[in-house]
Inosine/uridine-preferring nucleoside hydrolase domain-containing protein
Amino acid sequence: PERLILDCDPGHDDMAAILLALRHPRLRPEAVTTVAGNAPLEKTTRNALRILRAVGSDVPVHAGAARPLVRDPVDALSFHGESGLDTVGEGLPSTETGPDPEGAAETLLRRASGAPGELTLVVTGPMTNVALALRLRPGLAQQLKRIVFMGGSAGPGNVTAAAEFNIWADAEAARIVLESGVPLVMMGLHLTHQVRLTRRHVERVRRGRSPIAGALADLLSFYLQTTARHFGEEEIGAPLHDPCAVAFVAAPELFELEPMEVRVETRGEQTYGMTVCDGRRMPADRESRRPNVQVAMRVDAEAVLEMVVRALGG
Ligand code: BDR
Ligand code: CA
């Protein structure tokens, strides 16, 4: 199995990513690290703990950065609700356990140096923890097998016309990570918008065999509703962004990648947080380009959805 660490900010789609990582037979999650993003750090950490403990997992949770490196903190509570993981009905049971005393950057560094070339880091939130770890020890870039991240876009953004939320929430951190030399695989909005969770999937989860089927279905219903309210796209469903990154580690054959030079805009007035993806096909320019990211362009969306619904018990 693939050994991985999941760095996340749950968040509804992060929740699905966590459960996919736990349930897929080809994956071995060793730790979950949390970051401020969809919600402030205390909430994303509590949500991660609630998800894991509700399904009986003892994978350790390490809390990371409470603030971005440079910019002012932002959140997506208007999307994921006050708790960062709101529900239409029954929520997840609460848990008394707190996070592990070791911080996120510290655990990344310790675990990566203990297993050089073995660990995949999956990032489904802002990249603050990863950037901090790279600043503490740049050699981390050579110790990780790769980073698979949900973030950015080769087309339009979501939080602004140009920027996707995870990159926009800490563009300076994303820039450090994308320039670090670590092998990178990107799941941008142009890809994750192909993978749509619908009411039909949610009903399968509700009728499924998970001991918390009702709670999971209610959480996903909230996510469907909030997406419909923001984008008016109820019929075509809600994009399952974060599970795409985990699904890639489990089943890379479902994805088509293109190597590209991807740079993060940190100074643009209109474009802060944009991922500028050089997808030009003119051969004359090839020489000067330095592809630093494998950008996922196409996916077998049905297969990914099936994988996620099964991981949720459906
Ligand atoms: C990303 O932003 C967050 O709200 C989601 O959890 C996902 O990681 C999508 O832009
Ligand atoms: Ca996320």
Summary: The chain is about 40% helix and 20% strand. Residues 213-231 form the longest helix (19 residues). The mean pLDDT is 96.
